[in-house]
Structure formats: structure tokens, C-alpha cells
Amino acid sequence: MHRYKRPLIALTALALLSACGGGATAAGDGGDEGTPVKGGTLRLAFWDDQQGCIDPNQVYWIESRSLNRQFADSLTDQDPETGKIVPWLATSWKINDDATKYTFELRDDVTFSDGTAFDAAAVKTAFDATHDLGAKSLLGLTYTAGYKSSKVIDDHTVEVDFDTPNAAFLQATSTTTLSILSPKTYEQTPEERCTGENLVGTGAFTLDSYTAATEAHLTRRDDYAWPSQLVKNQGAAYLDAIEVSYIKEDSVRVGSLTSGSVDIAWPRLPISEADQKVIEATGASVESRSLPGISSSYFPNVTEGRVLADEKVRQALQKAIDRKSYASTIFWADYPVVTGPFDSTTPYSTDGSAALAHDLEGAKKLLDEAGWSAGADGYRTKDGKTLTLTIPVRDTTPGDQLVQDQLKQAGFRVELKVLTLAQYQAAAAGGEYDLLGTYYTRADPSVLGSVLDQAVSQAGTAQLSQAGATADEISGLFRAGLEATDDGKRSGAYADLQQEILEQGVMFPLYERVQTAGISAKVHGFAWTSEAFLRANDIWVDQ
Amino acid sequence: MTTSRSSGGRRLHPTVRYVAGRVAQAVVVLWAVYTVTFGILYLLPSDPVSLQLAAANVQVDELSPAELAAAKAQYGLDRPLSTQYFDHLGGLLHGDFGRSISLHRPVGELLAERLPSTLALGATAIALALLLGGGLAYLAAYVRPGRLKLALNRLPAVGVSLPPFFVGLLLVQVFAFELGWFPPTGTEGFSSLVLPAVTMALPTAAMLAQVLTRSLDDQLAEPYVTTAAARGLSRQYVQARHALRNAVLPALTLLGLLLGATVTEAVVAETVFSRQGVGQMAQQAVLAQDVPLVQAIVVVAATAFVLINLVIDLVYPLFDPRITHTPRVS
Q: Which is nearest to A413 in space by CA: A385, A436, A437, A393?
């Protein structure tokens, strides 16, 4: 059910500076012009806050995760350029050969903003509590898959044990989801933590107030001295404070940026080409990064009797989608074209463009072979049945309509079924679809397992998208990816997985997801985290 | 008009009786509203339990049966529907609105936080609508037939047909971004109230003006106006003192309905201007299928509607003494 939430999760990505940074002043990516000035408030406008929760351990909403990063630190950090995991609150770590035992050495100079010392016991409390959230933490559930317990070895050494291998856990320790909060924070119920009162971390800022979907206020922590090596400013942040508002209307958010009432406009969908021009005309710039994780894709229902049960039809579908024209039509001319199951910023993602190339003639040929013959109205039929694909949607977007048109060229009739949230969930859970769209943000390929691996996920996208030998093979490759601590083995498993998925038509990637942000000319030192969230340590503003 | 029947003390004063009757009616209306809302939310084509767990941010398809049972118990969703119905209802009667599932906080607290902003917005919008609509109608009736009158008579039709969403965006663009006179978003201070209030007031004002212009024109064509004019009273005096009083009744009835529409208009205005009020919360609550929150908002809105219309009914006799609240005798 609620595949719909997965779409909401996604958000983050790589530097398309050439595409949409335009010639504007380099506000982002280091922003090393001039000498940083201390002081000032950064006014940040997000799109929305539908989850209404700010507890890092429970949050899946990507805008909230951008705030989490400012007040909550993690054991490790991930390099946005290389995907490599680097020390942060942990100085070093050891992983046993089957990825079931992680031992972290911790910094001894870190304190929570309530004065409590950061130590091994605090890490244990945080990991136990996050795992205990169970289904309340969509992300925590997969990040701590197989979690058994944490052991305090000494004050500054903690061991994390798993029942089943979890090679993706190291990357998980770099995420906001596995942020370490003060032990006192965990004395509250999960619901209380959601409201943001007494949420205490070790971050460069502290969360002063948070009202769901309304506002948030963060102030600098003056004694902060433990950022990861990925941050230039190794001391306290430059900004006095960060003020967050939520503006649902795109035009109002962009207007607020260009009229100077906010400093950063942070939407969910990419800022349109027209709005980018408006923003750049005022001297502001647009930063962007592809969101790592599952690209925005369709997942098939291959149940016996459905048209996509036939492998040839799936292959024809793969060839009938014109991803290049999708990217340039729905977004803009240089928008990155999706190259596989993962967005390009995901570690271990491989280039599957060849398998995803648009080949209309090839698609038609495959459909002919599968026995679907072209009818008078352009749609193919077989035994009196029309080649129809049902896609449930919440509302029809220009993208949906473009796909509908593209597939018509090959003879598919696409039925976009507009459903309310409740109906959508029911359709997704009951398999009343041929294609279902979803995406998911995490800078590790294991994320796809929660959507596609029949062995671990009960979701329709996992249970209905593959059958028989393909399903076994895919589950095997996911398992191999989680068992391999060796980089070469991991990348091998995930490369095979991506190839298998595209060849068997288990996933139909549609577009790469790009996070954009409009940045005022007075903002310097803007930086993305690996998962395309905000990193404010280096930001300073002209006074 | 009522003194002769107040003897004996056994009969209540008719006005009191009238009000008591209306209050009783209001209670029935509110109960019906609550019940219908409850029914709709639970009869949607899906599993209400899963929906509410989803609103509470619990991933239902990842739960084992035992975990699902535990989660249901935590949110009280394992109880029979009738128990939930009466528990919610009992809570409401005690002023306990329950806890919002999606926002993790008591509903009463959320309403207390957001109602003031929406009330201020609604009141400002209505005041503005009365001023604009009433003023326009009065002016349109006062000017002599000609092009100006024609223009003034046509103006409300323009106002009625403008979509508030579009008007809101236009106002932000011009008065916030271009001229910088008012803040584009936010809930701080009176200046942030102006643009959303204008957005909400325009359609209401236009509708009021339409009705009032029409009935003023009708009244001015009545023989008593000619009589008054023949007695040497000025046109201005006749319109203000005689015609307006009679013309205002249909407008008053309409106003009651328009006030009820404020809640809907607030959804649009609060979305465009990013105001955190009840309207926006209502929209979010419906989308999230947050049953306790939706219930509370609907009941509050219905109470406001019922109260406003009661007040308007009580105000009628002030304008037209022929209307009394004496119960009809068969």
C-alpha cells in the first residue's frame, strides 16, 4: 500500500551546474568568493511539510531531513562527490567479514546541546530507540534491517550487531535517519519527539522551535567544533540563525526569493525553466543535484493474465518510452536523462542507457512477435483484447500525458486512472494496475530492495513485479549486495542487479529526479549533502 | 407587541422561546454534521484503519499481523466503530477534541493556535466585503440612469467571475513583489492581513452588491418612495432612511450564507498567502485522512455557521419590525 508516500520521500541529487547553474554567480559549490562574515539569519522557504514531524529518526519527508542535518549529527558522513563514507562522530570503524558486526570508535570531545556527553551509551540508546520505532520509521526500518542489538564496549567504543548481513548499514550511519540524539530525548514518546520539543542533537545549530507546516527556527551553537572533514568551516557556523517557512505556491515562493523576503527558495519539483530565468535575472542563482536513490520509475504488475506478464511486451514497453524527449519536454533542454534504476548520484549506479534507448521500430517488432497486431485506431489487439496499460495516478501531470502519447506510437493504450488517495492505496495494494510509479531517496543502492525484493518487502511493487526465476535471481543479488563488505563484490552484485532489472523489464525508469534550490546573491557557501539535503555550516550572508 | 401574553409566568417570553428552539435546532444540526462526517470518513472505499495508520506515519504494508494489532490498539482503532463514534462524540461534548493523528498533538491545542488567525482574516474580509459591496450598491442606486450607473451595475458581475486563486496571485505579484507595500506571506501583524482579506472579500462583496443593488432599485420604484419625494424629502434622505432599510433584508440573508463560505475561501487565501490558519489545516487534514482533526474542524465550522445565522435571524426585526419571532398560531 501507500506507494504514494514513497514518491514524497524522494529528493536529492548531483551537480548539474552546467545545466541550470547558468552563468550566475557561484553561490554554491563552495562559494569561496570573499571572506566569510559571521552573523545574520538565513531565511529558507520550503514547499510543504505534509509529514508534520521533525524527529530525524522518524522523518522520511526530505525537506525535514534538510533541517535535521543542521541540528543532528551522525556517526559518519558521505562525500557527495565520491559516495565514500568518512568519519564524523565516529573516528574509525571495523566491519566483520559477513557484515553482521560493526565496531565504531567515537570522538571523545563531543557534547549534546543539553550538556550531556556524547558517548557509546548514547549511540546505543539512539540505535535501539530508532529500531524500536518499527513501522513508524519508514527509513529506519530498512536502514536497521536485521538489527539485533548495540553493545557498549567502553565509553567511546560501540558495537552494533545484526542477525542478518547488512552491508548497507555503514552508509545508513551517515544519514539523518540514524542521527544520534541526546539520551534524554528518547525519554519522550515518538509522538512527542515528532513535535520537535526537546529534540537535542550535537549539531552546529539547535532547534528552538518547530510548528508543523508553519515555521521552524534554529540558532547557532557557539561551541560546535566537530564537523566532518567534508565541511570547510571546522568551527561554529557563520549564521546566527536559520528561519524556515513553508510556501506552497511556486510563484509565491519564487517571488519571495526575487523580492528579497527569503534567501533560499527550496521546492520539491525542479524549478521550471521560466522561473530559473526570473531568478537568475535578479542576480540569484539556481543550484541543483540529482537525488540519489531510485529514479522516478514505473513498476509492472506481471500477474498471469495481465498484458505485462509477457516478457516481450515488457521489453517493447522499455523501448517505446522516449526518455530523452521526456527530460527535455517536461523539464528543460539539458535536463539529465535517466540512465537506469538509480539516479546518477547513487553509489554503484551503472549506465544502462543502451538498454533504455528509444527504439520505436524495435518495440513494434516485439509486439508483432508477441501476437499484438495493429488495429485501425492505432491501438494493438490480440484475441479481441486491446493492449491496455492501466496506471493509477493522484492527478494527471504533463509527464503522464506525454508517456501516454509516446506509448500510443507503439500501439499501447494507456489508461490514466485518477484516484483519490484512499482509492490509490487500495489499487496499489490490490494489484489493480499494470504500471505503478514510485521513487525513493537514499544514497545507497540497497534502498531498491525495500521496493523490489520479494524476500524482504510485502509491497505490491515487490510481490507483483517479478515472478519465478527472475524473482529468485533478484532476491539473490540484493542479498549478495548486503552480504558483501568488499567494495568490488558489492559493486559487482549491484551491477548485475541493474542489468537484470532492465533486461527483464522489472522496472521502467522514466526520469532522473533533480533537487533544485534558488539561492539569493547575498548567500555564500551553499553546499549539498550526499543525499542532496542542505548543509549550512559553510553558509554566510552579506550583511 | 408581546406584553399582553407574558402574564402568568408559565409561558416563556416568545423571543426566549424562539431562541431556545433555535438552539435546540442547532444542537440537532451539529449532531447531524458530526455523524455525517464520521460516516463519510469511514465509508470511503478503503480501509480507514490503514489510512489513519498511514496518516500517523506508520508503514502498514511492512507490519506483521501482531505489529498491526499493536499499532491499531495504540491509536484506538481496534475498538468497534460504534465505540469510536460515541467516544469521539462524548469527548466533543466535554470539549475534548482528541489528538490529531497526523500532527501528533491535541486537536484543541491546534485549533487554539490557528483559529485566531483565521477569525481575524474572516472578520476583516467580511468587514471589507460589507464596505465594498454595500458602498458600491448604494452608489449604483444613487446615481442617475446613464453610463456610470450601467458601469456600476455591471461591476459586480466582474467581481463574481474572478477566481479568488487568480486574484490572490495577482495581488501578491503587484502589491507584495512589485510595490512591496504588503508582505507576500506570513501571519504577522495587520499588514499581512490585507492582501488575503481583499482576496476573500472581492467575491463576497460582488455578490452582496448584486443583490443589494437589485433590491434597492426595486424599493426605489415603490410608491412610498414617490410619496416621500412628494413630501419634499431629499433623494439622499429617502434612499438612506426608507429604501435601504427595506432593501437590506435579502442582502442580510445572503450575508449569512456568505459568512459560511468564509471557511472555504480561507482555504484558498491561506494557501496562496502561506497563512497557517484553520482553512489550510482543514485541507491538510482531509488529505491525510486525519479523522479527529477533520471532525473537529467540521464541527467548529458548523457551529460558527449556525451561530451566525441565528444572530442574523435575531437581527431581522431591527430592520423590519413586521417580522417578529412570535410563534405562528394555527
A: A385
